[in-house]
């Protein structure tokens, strides 16, 4: 082999530019291609990555290794503890295998960029080919205002983004060419593998692709009406596959373009596509403002807020024992499945940062440690939006009323019943905010927060910030 493709958060064969171009070049020069994957369990722990995400990641690596073996491409695991160790590990592999060309798709977060930079310096004798469009639909440096500056507000970002999208060829890259004969099925040793809810999230690329096409064919047209109701299976639930790169952005576009053309709709009007644009929006913020990766709020003045630290409240929130049924149902959904509905991510994050007035960074870290779809940019963006510390965030005086959210988006209480079974017998009216005697009967806790004064206190703290 002379061409080595290094896969990271792009664990797929299809729509993978680095893999595709490496195989093209290798084929035309009659050279070989191999793939490496580099688990860094300690680094992942430092980034708070969840067991669920690592479980799915391991499964996807196994699945990918099988597919590549059928194409005659070997997949090697090079394990290291942290990103710092990777340049030496990869350089040693390149030396002993006489690798001349290294290929990878670029990553945006700051530690990942430092890792790649260090490797490039170490491998100066090698030809390194990097490709950009593997994770974002449009890369951050291409979506700029007329003044050449990054957008800090979503709507103008989206208008520019969609204009560029209409001008680009977004056809997915095909699978790599097969290399000679198929290889035997690999038996990988993934010491860091963790159990996860594989019944909900099959570690299989074909299933993920099918899920995408089924969503686009059957559900996308009802997305706008259904997407805010957690009991409805109205959203795609593709986020874990996008986060690990089992699905590529061009694959999503292909499906949405095709469905819209079948239904004679303008793809530009797809609300689902707009959600994918939010993903790019938060990613470009992370790329342009690296201080976001260093625990800093987008609005520096919010560093002066004095957050409350109450260990018991924090624990109750984590475990789904706040006494607010919708919040508890949501947190239990997260703990049990590794995923939480978007409406509920907003409700629980607003509850945490406004009503508990707890430091949003602690909530962000807890989410990351449980989410199967944990992605730094989207998670940080969502938390800073909810805490009103981010750019284009919720206005600080917008404090979600959990009971009203519950009455609106879980009208009959069915979502609550699913995850808070002790309340299952309550009627649709009382389930959102049970009376004290009902709580006692159901062994369900009293609310840990008094909504009205907590809301006013949060607004007053932000008002004070404005004055000073
Ligand atoms: P769909 O509604 O089907 O949307 C399609 C895809 O678009 C999603 O899979 C996701 O990749 C992207 N997307 C949708 N909404 C958003 C959004 N608001 N911001 C960024 N991308 C979006 N999403 C993550 O992928 N990882 C996270 O770690 C994450 N943390 C969040 C934390 C908070 C506090 C909030 C409010 C939101 C967070 N989100 C995160 C965004 C959103 O909740 C999830 O992407 C969505 O719920 C995933 O479900 P789905 O795949 O069914 O989404």
From TrEMBL:
It is an enzyme of class 4 (lyase). Its EC number is 4.1.99.3. Binds 1 FAD per subunit. Its cofactor is (6R)-5,10-methylene-5,6,7,8-tetrahydrofolate; FAD. Residues 1-138 form the Photolyase/cryptochrome alpha/beta domain. The keyword Ribosomal protein does not apply. InterPro entries: Crypto/Photolyase_FAD-like_sf (IPR036134), Crypto/Photolyase_N_sf (IPR036155), Cryptochr/Photolyase_FAD-bd (IPR005101), Cryptochrome/DNA_photolyase_1 (IPR002081), DNA_photolyase_1_CS_C (IPR018394), DNA_photolyase_N (IPR006050), Rossmann-like_a/b/a_fold (IPR014729). Signal peptide: none annotated. PROSITE patterns: DNA_PHOTOLYASES_1_1, PHR_CRY_ALPHA_BETA. It catalyses: cyclobutadipyrimidine (in DNA) = 2 pyrimidine residues (in DNA). It holds the Pfam family DNA_photolyase. The record marks 307, 360, 383 as: Electron transfer via tryptophanyl radical. FAD binds at residues 223, 235-239, 272, 275-282. One of its GO terms (biological process) is photoreactive repair. Keywords: Chromophore, FAD, Flavoprotein, Lyase. One of its GO terms (molecular function) is DNA binding. It comes from the Bacteria. Belongs to the DNA photolyase family. Involved in repair of UV radiation-induced DNA damage. Catalyzes the light-dependent monomerization (300-600 nm) of cyclobutyl pyrimidine dimers (in cis-syn configuration), which are formed between adjacent bases on the same DNA strand upon exposure to ultraviolet radiation. This is Deoxyribodipyrimidine photo-lyase. It comes from Marinomonas rhizomae. The lineage of its organism: Bacteria, Pseudomonadati, Pseudomonadota, Gammaproteobacteria, Oceanospirillales.
């Amino acid at each position: 082999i002379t061409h080595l493709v290094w896969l990271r958060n792009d664990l797929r064969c299809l729509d993978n530019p680095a893999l595709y171009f490496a195989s093209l070049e290798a084929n035309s020069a009659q050279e070989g291609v191999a793939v490496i994957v580099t688990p860094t369990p300690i680094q992942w722990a430092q980034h708070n990555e969840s067991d669920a995400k690592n479980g799915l990641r391991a499964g996807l690596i196994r699945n990918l290794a099988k597919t590549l073996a059928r194409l005659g491409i070997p997949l090697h695991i090079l394990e290291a503890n942290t990103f710092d160790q990777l340049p030496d590990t990869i350089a040693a592999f390149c030396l002993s295998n006489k690798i001349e060309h290294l290929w990878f798709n670029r990553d945006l977060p700051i530690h990942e960029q430092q890792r790649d930079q260090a490797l490039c310096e170490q491998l100066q004798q090698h030809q390194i080919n990097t490709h950009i469009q593997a994770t974002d639909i449009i890369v951050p440096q291409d979506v700029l205002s007329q003044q050449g500056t990054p957008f800090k507000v979503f709507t103008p970002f989206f208008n520019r983004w969609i204009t560029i999208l209409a001008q680009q060829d977004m056809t997915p890259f095909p699978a790599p060419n097969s290399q000679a004969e198929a290889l035997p099925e690999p038996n990988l040793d993934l010491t860091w593998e963790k159990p996860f809810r594989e019944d909900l999230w099959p570690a299989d690329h074909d299933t993920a692709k099918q899920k995408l096409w089924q969503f686009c064919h059957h559900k996308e047209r009802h997305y706008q009406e259904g997407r805010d109701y957690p009991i409805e299976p109205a959203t795609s639930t593709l986020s874990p596959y996008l986060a690990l790169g089992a699905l590529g952005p061009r694959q999503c576009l292909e499906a949405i373009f095709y469905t819209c053309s079948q239904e004679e709709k303008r793809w530009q009007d797809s609300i689902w596509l707009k959600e994918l644009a939010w993903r790019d929006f938060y990613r470009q913020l992370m790329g342009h403002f690296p201080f976001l990766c260093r625990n800093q709020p987008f609005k520096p003045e919010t560093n002066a807020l004095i957050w409350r630290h109450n260990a018991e409240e924090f624990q109750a929130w984590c475990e789904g024992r706040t006494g607010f049924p919708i919040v508890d149902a949501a947190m239990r959904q997260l703990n049990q499945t590794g995923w939480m509905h978007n409406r509920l991510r907003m409700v629980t994050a607003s509850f945490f940062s406004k009503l508990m007035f707890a430091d949003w960074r602690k909530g962000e870290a807890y989410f990351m440690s449980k989410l199967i779809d944990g992605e730094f940019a989207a998670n940080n963006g969502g938390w800073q939006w909810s805490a009103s510390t981010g750019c284009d965030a919720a206005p600080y005086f917008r404090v979600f009323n959990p009971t009203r959210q519950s009455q609106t988006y879980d009208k009959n209480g069915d979502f609550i019943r699913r995850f808070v079974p002790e309340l299952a017998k309550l009627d649709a009216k009382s389930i959102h905010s049970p009376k004290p005697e009902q709580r006692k009967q159901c062994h369900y806790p009293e609310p840990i927060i008094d909504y009205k004064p907590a809301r006013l206190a949060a607004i007053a703290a932000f008002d004070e910030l404005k004055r000073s």
